[in-house]
Amino acid sequence: MKADYKTFRSVVSCLIFFTLLLTFFIPWSSRVDVPAILKSSNEFHIFPPIDGKLVRSNLAERKQIKKDDLLFELVSPSLNAELSISEKRKKILETRLSRSSASAQELSSITILRQELAAEEQKFNGQKSKHKTLEMRAPFEGMLVNVDREVHEGNWLSGEQSISILIDPRSMKLTGYVKASNIMRLKIGQHGYFIPDGFLKKSIPIEIKAISNISEVQLADGLLSQQEGGLIAATKDSNGSVIPHGTWFKIDLLIDKKHSVQPIKAITRGLAVINAEPQSFASRVFNQIAFVLIRESGF
Predict the structure, then answer these.
(1) What is the CATH number of domain 28-42+169-297?
(2) Are strands 267-279 and 191-196 parallel, antiparallel or unpaired?
(3) Which among 185, 152, 225 has a CA at the least distance from the CA of 32?
(4) CA proximity to 37, closest of 207, 231, 187
């Protein structure tokens, strides 16, 4: 009886051992998670050209804009005053020149007047050019996002105040970063989907367009760092560059042409899920060790 029990325990132990061994070597997971950023490759940051009062505004969140549409109009009392003074001074100099005779005694003063008039005309033309920028128009067709909700007609705006961003939804670009342990599993042409953070509920079908063979020294998009609520552990250096912990590679992703994307913000953070080759835990450990050895050997 005891011998049978021992035999049974041995069989159970062997089964458990081989089951665990199989679990270790059998490829299970085909999913690769890639932190990613969706943004327009064609965008125009809207700032007031100078300090001024907002008198007309066509800024509204997600508003469709055509090229040359009026975005906003400012008035600047200080610029108007400078224009008026410059114009009056220009007219005075023109009058003095027209009344000057061509006598030898006045030739030197005429030369000085002409120089002063040329300088005043240059100043006046510069102020007129600046005045034209108070009517800001769209440089291309697109959509307004990140509109400052505190900006209304009648407000005084600063020249350093960002009030909106015009983006071209047709030029949306999706970039992701993959861990070194998963880089060997990815291939150009593999499919997956992008899950935006909260802004767009539906996932977006995607495909891998390009895979970098050089690891990233710093993150081009700081929003992917954990400090900004992203998934990549990183540290900011003294220059403000975002340095990722570990080794990461950049990949470019294509959005399915059949799927229209209407972004709500200029930059949308999310997670790209790639359907990659299945990998066992053993293979993952081996690839990680091999990658570290190759990196440390200098290849």
Answers:
(1) 2.40.30.170
(2) antiparallel
(3) 185
(4) 231
Residue 13 has pLDDT above 70, yes or no: no
Place of tokens 């998670």: 33
Describe the crossing of helices 281-297 and 2-25 by its angle, rounded to 10 degrees: 50
Domain boundaries, the chain: 28-42+169-297, 77-133
- Encode pLDDT of 231-266 as tens digits: 899 998 888 888 999 899 999 998 877 766 666 667
